[in-house]
Design goal:
Its EC number is 2.1.1.189. GO terms for molecular function: 4 iron, 4 sulfur cluster binding; iron ion binding; rRNA (uridine-C5-)-methyltransferase activity. One of its GO terms (biological process) is rRNA base methylation. By secondary structure, this protein is of the alpha/beta class. It has two domains: 209 residues, Rossmann fold (3-Layer(aba) Sandwich), CATH 3.40.50; 135 residues, OB fold (Dihydrolipoamide Acetyltransferase, E2P) (Beta Barrel). The strands form three sheets. An eight-stranded mixed β-sheet has the order 1-16-17-15-14-11-12-13, with helices on both faces. Strands 4-3-2-5-6-7-8 form a seven-stranded mixed β-sheet. A two-stranded antiparallel ribbon has the order 9-10. Strand 2 and strand 3 form a beta hairpin. Helix 3 packs antiparallel against helix 4.
């Protein structure tokens, strides 16, 4: 992938960009094998490659510069803001969208927030696109509600310029720290969720719900999970840390009992909307802490976990090991925590492992593993 920003030494986020892509995949596979080397693996599957550019359907842009000449990109520690609107990781239609948004910032009088001076209003723009429809969701992260009326007043112009903007919200983040968002979200459109569709499964993204950055690889990941589960004759499934329900909804059948647990109420609302659209009736999505839920319920045939980078932790590992469901399917964005968790599940053996390159040109990747209870 060619990147003028990288070549000009203005952005080094893609640390591995100078490494040929096949070598990147081989290096990641080698690192994963090293991490799992204390554990015998019955089946290593070939890594799943990503498109090398235009794969990132989410942009988290720091707003810098001035209200007349805003910059959208990143703010290096102790450095000047770097405009990333031409980043080749984004789909082609992101750059013209950013151009319109820069004009809108001036029309609405949204003064970029200055970290050094601790003043201004607009901190971040968060843009998400649906790979299915091309529709978009836009979030303005503001320091306060001071400019909310001006933002509302200017929105008709913005929506006329960008008709694919279906969901728009304002998030209020008043803290002078590098925190992406606050607790208050104000939806400014009638539509509250952006529809994505992967493998013909409708998934709904709300402003504060997590969704994968790379939809092409997310689709392959979910489809692989569905294939693995379909081969196991499962009648009951827990989907812990379920997010908007991508894994569980892919794996569920009309006869299967699916319980999805996620601490975010917004994500659970999305999962319920998807289940309704699919006509699934034996489904129960709840906004709860996954570990606390798991500690007090009967054993299903399979437990699927997709935790944040920290992993599922000692407490949940210990409980799952004692509860002993026949199968555990674990999707991990941090292989170090995955390896630690699997070692904390001595009653299980590793059946299958596959790497999914969710984050090309970096050292990061997603891993899917299937564990079977020892006889």
């Amino acid at each position: 992938m060619h990147c003028d920003l990288f070549n000009a030494d203005r952005c080094r986020s893609c640390q591995w960009l100078e490494m040929p892509y096949p070598q990147q995949l081989a290096e990641k596979q080698a690192r994963l094998a090293e991490l799992l080397s204390p554990l015998p693996v019955e089946q290593w599957l070939a890594p799943v490659a990503s498109p090398e550019s235009a794969f990132r359907y989410k942009a988290k842009m720091v707003v810098g510069g001035s209200v007349e000449r805003p910059l959208l990109g990143m703010l290096p520690q102790g450095g000047e803001p770097v405009d990333l609107c031409d980043c080749p990781l984004y789909p082609a239609d992101f750059a013209p969208t950013f151009s319109v948004l820069k004009t809108f910032i001036g029309r609405a009088g949204l003064t970029p927030y200055s970290v050094a001076l601790k003043r201004g209003e607009l901190k971040f723009l968060l843009l998400t696109a649906s790979s299915h429809s091309g529709d978009m969701m836009l979030r303005f992260v503001l320091r306060s509600e001071t400019k909310l009326a001006a933002l509302r007043a200017a929105l008709p112009w913005l929506r006329a310029q960008l008709p694919r903007l279906k969901v728009i919200s304002a998030n209020i983040q008043p803290v002078h720290m590098a925190i992406l968002e606050g607790d208050t979200e104000i939806v400014l459109t009638g539509q509250t969720a952006l529809e994505e569709r992967l493998n013909d499964i409708p998934l709904f993204i709300r402003p504060r719900s997590f969704f994968q950055t790379n939809p092409a690889i997310a689709a392959r990941l979910y489809d692989t999970a569905r294939e693995w589960v379909a081969a196991l004759n499962i009648t009951s499934l827990w989907d812990l840390f379920c997010g908007v329900g991508g894994f569980g909804l892919h794996c569920a059948t009309a006869e299967m009992r699916l319980t999805g647990i996620e601490i975010s109420p917004e994500a659970i609302a999305s999962a319920r909307q998807s289940a309704k659209a699919l006509g699934l009736r034996r489904v129960d999505f709840q906004a709860l802490d996954s570990t606390r839920f798991a500690l007090g319920h009967d054993t299903p045939d399979l437990v699927l976990v997709n935790p944040p980078r920290r992993g599922i932790g000692v407490e949940l590992c210990g409980y799952l090991d004692r509860m002993a469901p026949p199968w555990i399917l674990y999707s991990s964005c941090q292989a170090q925590s995955l390896a630690k968790d699997v070692l904390a599940l001595p009653s299980y053996r590793l059946v299958s492992v596959q790497l999914f390159d969710m984050f090309p040109h970096t050292a990061h990747y997603e891993t899917l593993v299937l564990l079977k209870r020892r006889d």
